Amino acid sequence: MKKFVLLGSAGVLGTLARYLLQGAFYRTLGGTFPYGTLVVNVLGCFLLGLFNGLFTDRFLIDPAWRSFFTIGFCGAFTTFSTFTFETYQLASGKNVEAAALNLFLSLFLGFLFLWFGIVLSRVF
Predict the structure, then answer these.
(1) Contact of 77 with 8, CB cutoff 8 Å
(2) Is the dihedral of CA 119, 105, 83, 20 positive or negative?
(3) The Cα angle at residue 109 between residues 105 and 112, in degrees rounded to 5
(4) Under 8 Å CB-to-CB from 106, ≥6 apart: which residues?
(5) Confidence of residue 60 (pLDDT cuts 50, 70, 90)
(6) 3-class DSSP assignment, residue 78
(7) DSSP string spanning 80-119?
(8) Closest of 15, 14, 17, 37 to residue 26, by C-alpha
(9) C-alpha to C-alpha distances, 33 to 13, 30, 69, 108, nearest whole angstrom
(10) Full-model pTM
(11) Residue 65: how many CB atoms within 10 A of its CB?
């Protein structure tokens, strides 16, 4: 039961964090390119790498709390399904270049920042 309460709580926090951060980017930069989703996905990849590295290699914590950060928070925070839908919208709207750019940046930067999070976790 503890794990489900922690996952649900983390999911709420991740969802709210995503909503606020995405909204800030869309208000600041407009909606012609999905910058908010890109930033959330890249940051989410970094956080998942950092949390996973910290909680499996450096600081062994209760698995329920590890799930709180990785599955609960990061799972609700990252928006891969939204990324896919927005890329589809760009491509179907005949903006294939922007769709390709979104695919490339999200995947490349996501992988790079995941790796960076893992490397940084080894410093602590």
Answers:
(1) no
(2) positive
(3) 155
(4) 37, 38, 41, 42, 83, 87
(5) confident
(6) coil
(7) HHHHHHHHHHHHHTT-HHHHHHHHHHHHHHHHHHHHHHHH
(8) 37
(9) 25, 7, 29, 17
(10) 0.84
(11) 15
| Single-letter amino acid code for the residue at 49 | G
**Is residue 29 within 8 Å of residue 93, measured between CB atoms?**
no
Report pLDDT digits (tens) over 18-50.
999 999 999 999 989 999 999 999 999 999 999
State the residue for tokens 């490349």: 108
Average pLDDT on 96-122 reads 97
Among residues 118, 124, 123, 122, the alpha carbon closest in space to that of 46 is found at: 118
**What's the length of the chain?**
124
CB 36 within 8 A of CB 22: yes
Q: Residue 60 — left, alpha, or beta (φ > 0 → left; ψ -120 to 50 → alpha)? A: beta
